[in-house]
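In the current project phase, we have settled on a layout for protein records. One protein thus recorded is set out beneath this paragraph:
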Amino acid sequence: MKIKGLKTFVANVSRTNFVFLKIYTDEGIDGVGEATLEWKTMAMVATLEELERVLIGKDPFQTDKLIETLHRDSYWRTGALFRTALGAVDAALLDIKGKALGVPVYDLLGGKQRDRIACYANHWFYGAQTPEQYGVNAKKAVAMGYKALKWDPFGDADLEMSPKQRRETVEIVEAVRDAVGPDIDLMLDVHGRLNVPTAIAMCKALAPYNLRWIEEPTPPESIDALVDVRRSSPVPIAAGERWFEPAKFLEAINKKAVDILQPDVSHAGGLSEVKRIAHMAHIEYIPVAPHNPVGPVMNAMTLHTAVAIPNFSVFETVSVDVPWRKELVRETLIFEDGDLLAPTAPGLGVELVEEACARFPYEATNLPLYDGSINVSGVAGGDAVMSKK
C-alpha cells in the first residue's frame, strides 16, 4: 500500500473554520485527520499542502517513521502550525492502518483501557450574558446528561481585572453553582489572560464554589508563572492546550506546574505523541484531560486517545454547535449517563462528507477573547451535538 495524495477541506462553523485532512492510498483506503488551528485557517491549509510531496509514494503503515521524518526535515521542527499538521497526518495514517487491519485506532495505541469515557460540556453557555442566563443554560446542559460543565466567565479580562469585573465573574460562577447543585463538576477556563497576582486572587475568590479546576490562568509562555499560581491556589490548576513540544510538558511535570495536564491531540503532534506525553505524566500520577473543543474528526482522535491512555481523567465535548456540524461527517457516538462509550468501528470511526464541506466555505473570523464576546457569539441557537441515549 502506498500514499497517492492528500487533500484539505475547510468548513466554516461561525466561531472558526474546521480544517480536515484526507490521505488517499493506491488500495482505495483513505484516512482522515483534523488540523483545526483556531483563527489560523489558511496558514494551516498551506502547511498541510506542503507535506504532500514528501508523503506521496510512502507506506502509510510506517506511521512513526513518517512523522519523525517530517519532523526532522521541516528544519524548524516546532510551532503551532507544524505540530498541528503533524497531528492531522498522524491521525490519518492511523485511520488508514486501523481500517486496513479492521481494528479501532485505540488498538494501535496499546489497546482499550476503559469502555466508558466520562465527559464534560463546553459551549453550553452560548448566548448567556447575565448570571441568571448562565444558570438557565447550565440546567439545560445537565438535562442533556452532563455531569460536568466548563466555561470562561472572565469577560474581557486582559492581565488585570477591575473590582467590577471580579464581582461579575464571581456572580456568574455562583449562579451556575446554585443552578446545578453541589454534585455537578464545574471547571473554569481563563484562556491564559491573567497575570500572576490577579490569577491567584481569582483562584482564592472562586474557591468557595468547589471547582474541579481553573484552566490556563496565565499566558502559556511561562511555566514558572503557572508554578507561582499553583503554589498559592486553593483550586486545582489545569493547563497544556497551547504547549506543542513534549519538552514543554516535561518541564511542566518536573516543575509541578499543574494538577491536570491538557495536551491537545492535534496541536501536540498527534495521538501517538499525546500517548507518550500521557505516560510521562503518569510517572508522576498526574491525570490527563485532553483539550478537545473543535471539530468532529478531532473529537474522534481525542476519544481514541482517551480510551487508550492509563491516566485519562475527563473528556471535553462540544455540547452545542452549528446545525450543519452533523452534515460534515458520518459518525456514531453513543452518549449514556454522562459518558461516551468506546467506539468499535475500524479506524477512527468517522468519515468526512467531502461535498458537505463545500457548502460551508471559509469565512474569516476574529479572536473573541478580549472583547467579551466569547460567550455570546458563535453557536447561539445551535443544535446539541450529543443527546442522551
User: Anything to note?
Assistant: The chain has two domains: 3-104, 107-347+376-384. The first strand starts at residue 3 and ends at 12. Residues 80-101 form the longest helix (22 residues).
